[in-house]
Amino acid sequence: MLDEITRQAWLYGRGFLLNGKVADYIPELSKANPVYLGICIKTLSGEMIEFGDVSHRFTIQSISKVITLAMALEKLGYDEVFSHVMMEPSGDAFNSILKLDTASNRPYNPMINAGAIDVIGLLAPVCDFDELLAFSRKLCQDDEITMDFDVYHSESVTGDRNRAIGYLLKSKGVLHGDVLSAVDLYIRMCSLSVTARSLAGLGQVLAAGGVIPDTEERVLSANTVRVVQTLMFTCGMYDRSGEMAVRVGIPSKSGVGGGIMSCVTDRMGIGIYGPSLDEKGNSIGGANMLEYLSKELRLHVFDAGKGIW
């Protein structure tokens, strides 16, 4: 049943692809094929179900914010991290500086660019890119993750807004250390090359409370998972997070590379690739696949009982 419903969700999502467009503000991302769409589900019992373009590599982009937040919580602790960044939905675009400049010195949450750059600034003195890459491979259960140099270069050349965010954070006394180094590390993490299967692996670890089901190795504390999942639910889908919480009700994080990573506690991780985006920057096919799955399988966090699967 799960297999057939997933196939139907994939077919349903394909019907929306021509209503979106690929990201073009980072030139390298504009080369993506807008009709690609893939979904991979990894259940906690070890079942893997997949349809479409699940092996195609693309860059993780903002989904890396989940990884860097998890690393910061593990290394620095809850109190230190959230003394620098808040946990409130911003209601603004992911790269907005409006509230940072007018409403608060601290970024509103770690899932927007300002918050993620602030978190990276905290991490930079205690871990380097190689350690973060190894951590990403472990969480995603994918040893083939590397940095896509072409996207990294393209994003670096066009990254003046992120550097401006870094300097604004620095001017407010929030970001410490070298701005350019922090932003460079942020761009490197956004340029990690993943697949829908990689994202399903990360979702599976979160769904299992921080444990890799296949090996029973604990890679994240239960507290870290709870914080990360909550912020994914409230802030993970850019400024469509509230609507997605109502319509889908599954903790998820999207990226402008076309990825969506979702986790259903105690049940499954979901990884999606679909570079055709809606006007908010979320995969348009992917968001509709998630809504289909949530309704058919009763996966909404507030659905009564365990649903039909």
Walk me through this protein's architecture.
This protein is α+β, with helices and mostly antiparallel strands and 309 residues long. The chain has two domains: 2-61 and 192-297, 3-Layer(aba) Sandwich (Beta-lactamase), CATH 3.40.710.10; 62-190, 3-Layer(aba) Sandwich (Beta-lactamase). The protein is 45% helix and 11% strand. The protein is built from 13 helices and nine strands. The strands form three sheets. Strands 2-1-9-8-7 form a five-stranded antiparallel sheet. A two-stranded antiparallel ribbon has the order 3-4. Strands 5-6 form a two-stranded antiparallel ribbon. α2 (64-76) packs across α6, α5 (113-123) crosses α8 (160-171) and α8 crosses α9. The chain starts with a helix and ends in a 12-residue tail after the last helix.
Summarize the topology.
Elements: H1 2-14, E1 38-43, E2 48-52, E3 58-59, H2 64-76, H3 78-81, H4 98-102, H5 113-123, H6 129-140, H7 149-157, H8 160-171, H9 179-190, E4 193-194, H10 196-207, E5 211-212, E6 217-218, H11 222-235, H12 241-247, E7 252-254, E8 259-264, E9 268-273, H13 284-297
Helix pairs in contact: 1-13, 2-5, 2-6, 2-11, 5-8, 5-9, 8-9
